[in-house]
Amino acid sequence: MRIENELKLGFKDVMIRPKRSTLKSRSQVTLEREFTFLHSDLVWKGIPIMAANMDTVGTFKMAEALAKDGLFTAIHKHYSITEWQEFAKNASEKVLKNIAVSSGIGKDDSEKVARILNEFPRINFICLDVANGYSEHFVNFVKKMRKNHPNKIIIAGNVVTGEMVEELLLAGADIIKVGIGPGSVCTTRVKTGVGYPQLSAIIECADAAHGMGGQIISDGGCKIPGDIAKAFGGGADFVMLGGMLAGHEESGGEFIERNGEKFKAFYGMSSTTAMNKHVGGVANYRASEGKTVEVPFKGDVEETVTDILGGIRSTCTYVGARRLKELTKRTTFIRVQEQENQVYSS
Ligand code: 5GP
Q1: pLDDT tens for residues 197-255?
Q2: Helix (H, G, I), strand (E, B) or coil at 272
Q3: Contact 292, 270 (CB under 8 A)
Q4: 186 catalytic, yes or no?
Q5: Is the Cβ–Cβ distance between 23 and 324 less than 8 Å?
Q6: 185, 188, 286, 293: which to mutate for ligand 1, most atoms within 8 A of CB?
Q7: What is the pLDDT of residue 345?
Q8: Buried/exposed code over 304-315 (b: 16+ C-beta within 10 A; e: otherwise)
Q9: Per-residue DSSP letters for 229-242?
Q10: Can you tell me which atom of ligand 1 is nearest the CA of 188?
Q11: In this structure, are residues 79 and 252 in contact, taking their beta carbons and an 8 Å threshold?
Q12: DSSP conformational letter for 30
């Protein structure tokens, strides 16, 4: 056993220090970024915020809504080929450019991905997602997927430390998904004791990835627009959202109406609910590592997106970043023991 004594930080432990700025208005800030990749020759341009590949979040409807503003959606892996075909009938070029097809390490998953990419070659991104990206088996799977899809943009995760970011990039991934345990419906830290405070994970993994020409996605733990700004400030190239995009018209999850109030179901992809739905129950050698909750219905996602983008534009003006790309360079975090004033919070 060994103890690392250096303090690791989450979003709640810091604030961003304001800096002198020549920006007159938030409208002068551009949030769009353009990325080239370590392995793929493709280029992606857009606002690097993505919906998580959860069946209550990363839906076709969500992709259509988010693509309007140039945001991205990692489509969950449980749609059938027929559902993909239906979706692709109306999916514009812009929508196809802003989605990823997701896969776990199962043979069925990777075969389905190959079929989807074959039928819809304009889809550029593959999201290889496992709860624990540390296994050798996963690294070999990434290598195999790179060989089978030489020019696609491959996202792989989840990990939280620099050495594993490097290993997955070397195995063929372009973008590494970072986050173990911070998710709003995740119980990994409760069930296993394993995890890493998200802001430190971002800072350390971004350093490792950028040193090799790769990118990272901060995945999980954003509760408010300020957390997204902190993730970008820490060095995240993309930020993935689950809970903040759940509960909308475009989200998946069953509608619930009780005493005149509307809710939508939201659950982790390793929750008992998800496992019952997709794999016929929780296998007896494992524990569920996700929660099932009801979130108040939030209406169209467009309004939430406007709120998020407005918040991040404002962060950029507070630190003098004319473009989102400059935010990390202009960020100084201060360690704090307080966040917002909660006197009127219910
Ligand atoms: P949120 O934005 O809601 O805080 O986090 C979303 C992320 O939580 C997802 O992108 C995914 O990485 C993670 N996640 C989703 N479902 C589960 C689950 O059942 N268990 C765990 N451990 N993480 C989950």
Answers
A1: 999 999 999 999 999 999 999 999 999 999 999 999 999 999 999 999 999 999 999 99
A2: helix
A3: no
A4: yes
A5: no
A6: 185
A7: 84
A8: bbeebbebbbeb
A9: HHHHHHT-SEEEES
A10: 22
A11: no
A12: B
